[in-house]
Amino acid sequence: MTRTLRVIGIGPGGIRQVTLEAVDAMQGVDAFFVLDKGAASAPLRDVRRQMCDEHIGPGNYRFVEIADPPRDRDPDDYDAEVRRWHDARSAAIEDALLAELPDGGVGAILVWGDPGLYDSTLRITDAIAARGRVDLSVEVVAGVTSASALTAAHRILANRIGEPIHITTGRRLASTPAGADTNQFVMLDADCAFLRTAAPDDHIFWGAYLGTPDEITVAGTVAEVGETIRTTRAAARERHGWIMDIYLLRTP
């Protein structure tokens, strides 16, 4: 029989950012599958449990924790290493689905933000379905994106009239194509690449833990607040044990 896997977007971290559609999808799930990165990811597992307690009820759900395969964070060939890591992840999740989810059962993966924006889960489910060991039906529930949470927190529009929007990562910020740098949402920037690549008079709108009681926002030119963002980010990560942040970089 077909197993169903629901890939559910849960927003940037706030319990109330979970949509009504996502709450409905969380009901009747036999097991929630969570990649376990060890002690470093414990706070993120706790947030997921808080969401399930809030929207399903304590004791009414089951978590299956899967050891996340190791990853080289500084490889010679970044793309090849990510593909290898995704293959290892898909194999681990596939084994867990076969072991922990009965035929006809419903599983779920809770994805930060939206499953369609800089997340690997749907690539992994595609790989599992393609191998054919699991007869798998995948359902996707959209989530609040960190980009929309950021603009709401700063009470701004993502772009000025008629301007394009570019979404990228910190690692690729330096290679932004010409003409695409007017309004850039930048994710996954642990190294604060804007300090090296942005112009001093570029405006930056930064936010972390968006929509949660721990929300932090900083805005100004890179020259004015760039170093403040770097030190604030480092202190927040040390304090909480994790951080999810994003910023909008805008040319004058």
From TrEMBL:
Pathway: Cofactor biosynthesis; adenosylcobalamin biosynthesis. GO terms for molecular function: precorrin-6A synthase (deacetylating) activity. Keywords: Cobalamin biosynthesis, Methyltransferase, S-adenosyl-L-methionine, Transferase. One of its GO terms (biological process) is methylation. Its EC number is 2.1.1.152. Residues 5-225 form the Tetrapyrrole methylase domain. It comes from the Bacteria. Pfam families: TP_methylase. Gene3D superfamilies: Cobalt-precorrin-4 Transmethylase, Domain 1, Methyltransferase, Cobalt-precorrin-4 Transmethylase, Domain 2. PANTHER family: COBALT-PRECORRIN-2 C(20)-METHYLTRANSFERASE, PRECORRIN-6A SYNTHASE [DEACETYLATING]. NCBIfam families: CobF. This is Precorrin-6A synthase (Deacetylating). The lineage of its organism: Bacteria, Bacillati, Actinomycetota, Actinomycetes, Mycobacteriales. The gene is cobF.
